[in-house]
Each structure stands twice: as C-alpha cells, then as structure tokens.
Design a protein that fits this description.
Strand order of the largest sheet: 7-6-5-4-3-2-1-8
Order of helices and strands: HEHEHEHEHEHEHEHEHHHHH
Mean pLDDT: 95
Number of helices: 13
Shape: globular
Number of domains: 1
CATH architecture: Alpha-Beta Barrel
Structural class: alpha/beta
CATH topology: TIM Barrel
Number of strands: 8
Length: 309
Amino acid sequence: MAASLASLRAALTGISGILVTPFDADDRLAPARLGPIVDRAVGAGVHILVANGNTGEFYGLTTREAETMVREAAGHVAGRVPLVAGVGRSLHDALALARASAAAGASALMVHQPPDPFVAPRGVVEYVRRVAEAGGGLPVILYLRNDGIGLDAIAALCSLPEVVGVKWASPTPLRLAEAIRRADPRIVWVGGLAETWAPPLYAVGARGFTSGLINVWPEHSVAIHAALARGDYPAAMALIGRMAAFEELRSEEGNGTNVSVVKAALALAGHDCGHARAPGAWPLTPGQHARLVALLGEWGMAGETGAAA
C-alpha cells in the first residue's frame, strides 16, 4: 500500500486528465468510444485519468450511469495509470459511487464539493469522512471549486487520514498559499483550473494540473507540464498561448461551452463522443464552430469541417 500511495502522490504532481463521457445519438452512454482517447492520453504520458469529473458531465449523469462509467473507464485504462473516480451529489449517492468505484478498481476517489445551497463547513468535513469510509480505505482527493468554506474547514479536511491531495479550482493563489501553509506537507496540491492557471498556482506551491485538453491534444498538455516541472515558465507560457483560444471558447456562455468545445473538437478530429447534455450548450453556434475549426487547423488537426452536432 505504501508503494502504491507513493506512486499516486507522485502522479498527482503530473496531469490529471478529465475524461469525457461519450453518448450515442439516442443519448445513451457509449463508453466504447472512450477507448482511443484513453490510449492516446496514456501513450502521450498523461499521469492520471479521471472518470466522472466535470468534463465528464458528472452532474448530467445519473448515479447508475456514473457507476457504469467508472467501471468502463477502468477497463480502458487497465491499470496503465492511476484512475481517479469522481463521487458526489447527495450523501447517499456519493456513498454508493464510492463503493462502486472501489469495486471497479479505482486508485482513488475525487470528492466533488457539495453543491447544496445549505453547506456548513463542519458538514462538509462529515460528508468527506463518510465518503472516505465508504471507499474502504481508498485515498481521497478533495475537489474545491471555491474556498468559501474557509481555511479552517479546509485544514480540517486535509487532516482526515484518507485525504492525500486537493484539486484547487479557485482563482485565488494567495488563499492557496495560506491553505498549503496550514496543511500537512504530505498533501499534494493540484492546480484545478487547467493549463492556463497552472503557472500562477505553481508559483505558490501547487504541482500538477487538471486538463480537459488531454481528450483532444494530450501531447501538448504533457509538453506544458514538462516545461513547468523544469521551471521554464517562458516555455510554458508560450505553449499555453497556443491553446489559450481553446480554453477561451470553453469559458463562453458562463462556462456552458466547457464540455461542448471538447466534444465538438473530438468529432472534428474523428473521435465522435456525441453531444453535451443540457444544461450545457449544444450544439456550438456557427461562429463558435468556425473558430474551433480554424484553431484545429492551426494545430494541424484539420479533419472533418462539417457541423459537429
């Protein structure tokens, strides 16, 4: 267990690739379509893959669909890299997903921050404690979309014995620096805002970053990580500049195009994973689609240029 935990900690300092959830034309899961995406990401050197993350439309899936996706993702990954399973929503949904993820062979659980409108900081600690218990000893990674629960609660969460990492998805590097200062130094802090925010979060102590780009262009994400790992910020920024327009497209419509752009790019590149479910934006507008086609052309990925919907 110690060796595998050490390996997981090391992998968390790399890229956590958030896999899409493929659908067919009838809005049913189509997990076989994930195979080539997983193979390319692993082959490119992506360090960790994540099922049931936000790029996987976690909140658009039923609990049963999420259970299916972690099992199917585990089959595609086949132990080549750690597989982290996202769990969350209501407490009992999260407990069921934790148990199913452990049974599927996940390496760790990623606990989504509860979206409930009535969230007590101490209630979040109890929520994570219960999920960790249901996971049967699997390591736990916290996914913090914001730091509104306060630094005291974050420190309490980091003191839970199963917690080994935190994905910090808030654009608040100074708060991150203080959270790191208060926590056990063994906790791995991961930049949770993808490639574009990795440099400022690295500057205060985060290591590794999450990525949805890995579904489309994993080699580029790996190059960005390599530049950051060797401390070459100018090279990292130049590489980030090449894909910044992709992330800008994903942030449109209140981030409602986040998954849509990834799936449209996959379709254009010949790896159709279907649509993005409502309330995400689908299809892309003609203007968004044209910009995406042009961008893929710049990347040398010009494939089908018809409608991606």
